[in-house]
Design a protein that fits this description.
By secondary structure, the protein is an all-alpha fold. It has nine helices and no strands. Helix 1 packs antiparallel against helix 2, helix 3 runs antiparallel to helix 4 and helix 3 packs antiparallel against helix 9. The longest helix is centred in the N-terminal third of the chain and has 71 residues. The mean pLDDT is 75.
Amino acid sequence: MDTIASHLAQLSQIQFASEIIAAGLGAVGTVLAYEYRRWRQSSKEEKEKAKTWYKEVEGILANASVKSRGSLLRSDPNREELANDFNEISMRLNTKSETAPDRVSDDATNLIKGLVPVFKKAATVAEVTNEKDGYEALGEMFEIAQKEYSEDFDLSSAMTDAMEHSDLFDNMTTQLSQLGMDSEEFSRRMEKMLEEWETEEFVYFISQFNDEDSVDNVFSLPNLLALEVTASISHEAHSIIEDMERSQLSS
């Protein structure tokens, strides 16, 4: 009898120990499952935040492209309105670049950050040509170009980029080529002008156009170039951001 009682006692202890172990494992499993669910929920929320960021950026870029292309169709676009629009776009893009969620790639953030000065400069062009007329406006644009230019600035490469984004600039360089001046020679002459000319010399040079239509065309060039470049770049950036969103958030 004592032996049977002893065995029963041992069985009872084993059962009790098993229950304790089962309870412990259950607790661990519950905690792990909870942590996984919390991680999954957090991951889902981060993904949604990133998706929202991408969609909002795409909206800003689409709006920029529409505004630029729409203004190109007008014979006399509202430059004050353009300046305000471009300034607002640059500020919104800057905010987006500084508040990107964790799931947004560095490449996407850097792309948007790089667009900020593009629209700031486009706004400056619109402001100058809105506030000043004719030769005075062109003189200020020349001074802005001089401030931007430096020995580290690759003007030839910048011209190649401009030709890709502006039909007007591409046509202009094509016409120069037909006159025997290739893009390399043109960029060297531009560098010399930016390095050596005074604003008055540039304005005097422009004033030598006797054809009134030619002068009017020169006055309209800065805005037309800015609009073509912003329209092209915003459209291209929109496509790139869409591709980044698909590749990054598809998983």
